[in-house]
Amino acid sequence: MGGAHKRGNRKGRRHLPAVLAVLAVLMVTAACAVNPVTHQSQLSLMSEQQEIATGQKLYPLYTQMSYGLFQDPDLQAYVKRIGQRLAAVSHRPQVPYDFNVVNSSDLNAYALPGGKISITRGLVAKMQNEAQLAAVLGHEIGHVAALHPTSSYTRQVLGGLFTSVGSLVLQTAGVPGGDLISQAGLLATNLTLMKYSRDQEREADELGMEYMVRAGYNPAGFVQSMAILMDERDREPSQLESFFSSHPLTTERVAAANRRLERYGTQLRTPQALRRETFRRKTAYLRQVEPAYELMDQAKEALGNKRTGEALHLLRQATSRAPREALLWVYRAVAEDLEDHEGQALSAARKAVRLYPDLYHARYVAGVITFKAEAHRESLEHLQAADRLVPDQPSVTFYQGRNWEAMGQRDRAARAYYAVLKKVQKGPMAQYCYRRLVQWGYIRR
């Protein structure tokens, strides 16, 4: 024990110069950025150019992790217009902002570095007017304007220097629904970039309401949006778990928003400035399909409790009500597969891909189901598309290897299995890869 401890110390000392060198580079390249809101200097490890580049790289990945885009081009364009209107009156109008509605049922919104902002379908569906939507987008713009994602990145790098220097790690996550979903590469991530302090949340609240007023919205919409979240927290706490983990919402913040509302005059505090009718028109399709997504969410819970027959019944209802929604077909494919309905599973998986070819979840599930059906070339096509959308997921690589193995291309299969083992050391997938590589003589026991 003592010898091992000393060797560990020597190993740590050997790595110390490298760690210190990294720290020295970081400190040399760091700059004291001037916060455009407070006009005070603050340490930043990202220039504005780096911030924008980081957001552009992460945005597609975070969109996929949030179940892709909600497939309503009219609603997407509407949200972008509102976001750009608010961004134009912010403290950083020069940032190339972008806005989208992602297809998660969670009630959430988030801002990445460089003004890349998403709001979930689930949250938009709870709203009644455009001012409420502007409030949430304005709040996220406030985070970007006050450099909150950038400062969070700086804390992440300095705090995690001995492990990974600010890298965003994607990993496969166990998701309710049996083997296919639990290995489906449905994604989880370290959301450090999106976690803010209470002081930062208060600042974003103030900025969000200010930007609303500048853009001509009734600031009461901000208080209304908070009321929606607080009501949902009381009714279904689990629905807001992801939101409150990244956006701590307290009664103090709600009270502060109400006090701030009183500072503004009555000119904008009118029903017209809530813009209810426009919102109702632009969200008509969302409200039409939302009951089907509620069925999907019930089905996911049933899958988690291994009630696959019940889940399949719910998902068949959901796809009947909203036949153009790819994500519903993804989950239906999973349920059909778990019930050993091979033909129906194949049909559902292929339909999901046709409806939304660039949805990671559709491509992955189609890849696995077509592999099981021994349609190996089609399976590889789906898995290669999944890898393009979200690179380097071990479960994708694993099934690519399984296809190569089935097609008699042992070298290609072995390379895939070796790549899996570099990332995953435990569990059935790793055991399978290790066993095959030993059997084929690529590694020795």
Automatic annotation (TrEMBL):
<keyword id="KW-0482">Metalloprotease</keyword>
<protein>
    <submittedName>
        <fullName>Putative Zn-dependent protease, contains TPR repeats</fullName>
    </submittedName>
</protein>
<feature type="domain" description="Peptidase M48">
    <location>
        <begin position="75"/>
        <end position="259"/>
    </location>
</feature>
<dbReference type="InterPro" id="IPR051156">
    <property type="entry name" value="Mito/Outer_Membr_Metalloprot"/>
</dbReference>
<keyword id="KW-0479">Metal-binding</keyword>
<keyword id="KW-0862">Zinc</keyword>
<dbReference type="GO" id="GO:0051603">
    <property type="term" value="P:proteolysis involved in protein catabolic process"/>
</dbReference>
<dbReference type="GO" id="GO:0016020">
    <property type="term" value="C:membrane"/>
</dbReference>
<dbReference type="GO" id="GO:0046872">
    <property type="term" value="F:metal ion binding"/>
</dbReference>
<dbReference type="GO" id="GO:0004222">
    <property type="term" value="F:metalloendopeptidase activity"/>
</dbReference>
<feature type="signal peptide">
    <location>
        <begin position="1"/>
        <end position="33"/>
    </location>
</feature>
<dbReference type="InterPro" id="IPR001915">
    <property type="entry name" value="Peptidase_M48"/>
</dbReference>
<keyword id="KW-0732">Signal</keyword>
<keyword id="KW-0645">Protease</keyword>
<dbReference type="InterPro" id="IPR011990">
    <property type="entry name" value="TPR-like_helical_dom_sf"/>
</dbReference>
<keyword id="KW-0378">Hydrolase</keyword>
<dbReference type="Pfam" id="PF01435">
    <property type="entry name" value="Peptidase_M48"/>
</dbReference>
